[in-house]
Amino acid sequence: MNCPLCNKNHIHHYLSDLRRDYFKCENCALVFVPPEQRPSCVEEKRRYDEHQNNPDDPGYRKFLSRIFYPIRERVSPPARGLDFGSGIGPTLSVMFEESGYDMVIYDKFYADNPSVLTGKYDFITCTEVVEHLFNPLSEIKRLTSMLKPDGLLGIMTKLVIDRQAFSKWHYKNDFTHVCFFSMKTFQWLAANLKCELEFIGKDVILLVPVH
Question: What is the pLDDT of residues 81-119, one digit of tens each?
Fold first, then answer.
């Protein structure tokens, strides 16, 4: 079994719970669920349909503000942005549009418009998405390739701290979460994609390709 991020086979068993097994890559520190235990597309969609996110929910807006404000401070309107994995109730894109940004969205289940993936953007947001990816390197590499010079990719995901914390972590209990990143994982990713890396708070990561 190879790591779904770096493709190395320096893998060891990290943890098992009542539902799944988890492995950790010694090379890039990604913790992941083995391929045979990933959900099907039908199971994924059923789970996402349960989400009740919408732009009228002030609590959801407050949650998204953790990535919204840092990007707004770094990229001025009317910059063009893509919200990748916008979900059943696109909200972050609405927040940016309200501030004068030109936004498009993409989601393989709810806004499957491949043409937007051929565009170039000043910034791309990817909130609560990377933990769902089966092939995270190719997806993140594609996103960084879609950035204009000096563009940035903003990712929001909870980070692995250590095995003890992971064993009690609610985040791993969502069966659609199959990849779990740590600070070390993003450091590996930034080095391999030739990006500047910035951590903001506990769950916001900014990647800026160096040209």
Answer: 999 999 999 999 999 999 999 999 999 999 999 999 999
Q: What is the CA radius of gyration of the chain?
A: 17
pTM: 0.96
Spans of all domains in the chain: 11-209
d(CA 184, CA 197): 11
The CATH fold assigned to 11-209 is Rossmann fold (3.40.50)
- Three-class SS state of 102: strand
Measured distance CA(96)–CA(210) in Å, rounded: 25
Alpha-carbon span 120 to 22, nearest angstrom: 36
d(C-alpha 86, C-alpha 142), whole Å: 17
Q: Six-digit token pair at 155?
A: 């990712």
**Is residue 84 within 8 Å of 93, Cβ to Cβ?**
no
Q: Is 84 helix (H, G, I), strand (E, B) or coil?
A: strand
* Residue 56 exposed, middle or buried by CB count within 10 Å (0-12, 13-18, 19+): exposed
Q: Identify the H or E element spanning 208.
A: strand 204-209
What digits encode the pLDDT tens for the residues 3-38? 999 999 999 999 999 999 999 999 999 999 999 999
